[in-house]
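Recap quiz, item 2
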Amino acid sequence: MFGDLDTYSLIDFFPFDAESYLSLFRLQNEAWWPLHIFIAIALFVPLAIVAVSWRSEQERMRLYAVRALQLFLVFAWASASGFILIRYSTLNWAAYNLGFVFFGQAILMLLMSVLGAIDVESLPPKERGPTYWAGALFVLFALFGYPAFGLAFGHGWSGIEFVGLAPDPTAIATIGIMLMCRKPYLWLLAVPAAWSAAAGLTAFALELEVGLFTAALAAIGVSIAALRRLMQWRDGATSAGVS
Amino acid sequence: MDHERTILDRRTFLAGSAVALASAALPAEVFADGPLRYITKTIPSTGVRVPVIGMGTWITFNVGADKARRDARAEVLRAFFGSGGGVVDSSPMYGSSQEVLGYALNKIGRPRTLFAADKIWTRDGDDTLEQLAESRSHWDIPRFDLMQVHNLLSWEEHLPKLRSLRASKKLGHIGITTSHGRRHTELADIMRNHQLDVVQLTYNPIDRDAEEVLLPLAKERDIAIIVNRPFRGGGLLDKLQRHPFPEWARHEADADNWPQFVLKWIVSHPAVTCAIPATSKVAHMRENMGACRGKLPDQKTRAKMIAHIEAF
């Protein structure tokens, strides 16, 4: 469609204005209220449980909480897929296929949960390390920070971006939960990171603020995950050398 | 003189080519009587007359399913037709704009002065007719007055099909578009070698490449010119509005503000038929449509206008 890309500016790829973009969240919130309350409980309660559970007698409860977080990820990406296909693609023709990518991410989350790849750390709190706690902060920011930012930037309650219903906080919550895992697999972060970059570009083109935070947070989160994987790989190589 | 002042007679406006050709041949003053006088120009190939200020829908009408915002756009459209508007231009590339247009047109009662212009925007040459039908369904109209190939995309495949539809009266006019000054050389070749009714391109006091070849060529080949991005996406007005409005333009060009100043400068070019600014605000629409009334600047005044802008 765009034969001579160099003659286009960034705004040419966004055939809508900031007001139209923000109205998508209002429509989404109006359609799904009061699901927000259940989503918040479904994310916060298991997050709190995995944070305080490490003793052997708490193992069953911790496992249930981990399962709940895994289910949340599957739901959140399926829901974000619906947001793209039903709402965002009405404004942006380029977004339609992205809806299926998001649905693929939901399937991937389900498969990796079943295969045990999304395995939240179970060490005692003092031994969990900064990556884990950074991840927990990411999830909390996705849950509470986005509504707060939305209100601070004048979008009103009806226009906030809510985790599990809007892509930005969903991407950040996903990165957060992966950082809390024993092994934060980078390839599971590819779609959240790509969306976050796109959200940053959208925010830049439309002169919005929230998407810029998404891009910045995702960059930090993926960097932390990459560093952690690098250290795990180095530690593994060292152990192999010793043995 | 290429621009005739006329009453926007809703019965005769966009009437058959015989009537239009006859009217085009008459002196301008014939149409200058009556309470509402709008400046129109003629599409040379058919003689159909259109008001010199039309309306684009890029970004402004892409409001999705939000009913309140759709209703607001219907009011913009009502203001457009209430001020003598005719040409409305959209594209499948503009997200929900076509659907919102259809909604707004139905809401305001489908003005008879509507000159519906849309585009074919697909790389697949087999999709021409399918996309046209889909666009018509979005607009909820029986026929487009103008169908253009968007950004020269697969024009070799689309143009023959559009020409065939035009021959069977299923389309009023056919054309081709570009914007931002892209592919002017290729566009000039198409204009030289193919029969077109309309070419749409970017032309404003900053982007004046079209003056070199395309506008003279359009004049020579009897092709109407629709001008997009007259305000450079709003950036030009932001720049101009930092400066005081020149009082002389009120009586020399019948322009009362910067948007009218720019629009009158554009549509007073002898080769330009119509400009299609886009807006989402009723007040801005009325401001734009003010350029459809009064007199157009002559060449001497045009030169003074551009010199004034270039001095900033």
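Chain A touches chain B through 21 residues (CB under 8 Å).
Chain A has a mean pLDDT of 92.
End of item.
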